[in-house]
Amino acid sequence: MGVEGCTKCIKYLLFVFNFIFWLAGGIILGVALWLRHDSQTTNILYLQLGDKQAPNTFYVGIYILIAVGAVMMFVGFLGCYGAIQESQCLLGTFFTCLVILFACEVAAGIWGFVNKDQIAKDVKQFYDQAFQQALMAESETNNGRAVVKTFHETLDCCGPDNAIGAVTPLWRDDLCPKKDSLLKTILETSSCHKKIDELFSGKLYLIGIAAIVVAVIMIFEMILSMVLCCGIRNSSVY
């Protein structure tokens, strides 16, 4: 005997929420893959300065997001199927998966909040080292010059956030993005430290919004799945 009345409404409401949850998992997976292959981040984070690889802290977070998105899609499908089939076993498994996923999301959120400044700091330190090598380089093929030019062309910036960086477009215009005139180059060129902060803070902001929306949906789903599970148990008694 199937559920009736309000419990039946909860059944279809849970199905709708799980479908939204499944879509949210797909969106997070898509955003994570976009961040993973976005030209701005890949051009910078694939760089190598001598034997030193660019910091990979950002990619650690991206791989976590990819895993979370894939698991969310699986859990969303499990919840949809369990609600339609009115299966206590599937709904119990779904609830357990949600609790684990919610705990992982909170842990990932804390990790991201703690490391958000460190990510940009590591990249800026890597850039500063390359910039110092580029200034002292005599060869056009020097690795430091290649790294710095990749930063400058990708982020449309020139120099670090200090006095040397401010005058770099004047005396090392070979390292900076070309503008129509020298005056335009001086006025429109930003420091690379500022651009790096903007790059990572902007992307982390998008991730934070997605995480909050998903957390709210998960809380509603946990409540609805337990109510539906109890309703199925009670209806089977009669």
From TrEMBL:
Matching InterPro entries: Tetraspanin/Peripherin (IPR018499), Tetraspanin_animals (IPR000301), Tetraspanin_CS (IPR018503), Tetraspanin_EC2_sf (IPR008952)
GO biological process: adaptive immune response; regulation of cell population proliferation
Gene3D superfamilies noted in UniProt: Tetraspanin (1.10.1450.10)
UniProt name for this protein: Tetraspanin
Subcellular location: Basolateral cell membrane; Membrane
Family: Belongs to the tetraspanin (TM4SF) family.
GO MF annotations, alphabetized: lipid binding
CDD domains assigned: CD81_like_LEL
Transmembrane segments: 12-35, 56-84, 90-114, 204-228
UniProt entry keywords in alphabetical sequence: Adaptive immunity, Cell membrane, Disulfide bond, Immunity, Lipid-binding, Membrane, Transmembrane, Transmembrane helix
Record membrane topology: Multi-pass membrane protein
One Gene Ontology cellular component annotation held by this UniProt entry: basolateral plasma membrane
Source organism of the structure: Stercorarius parasiticus
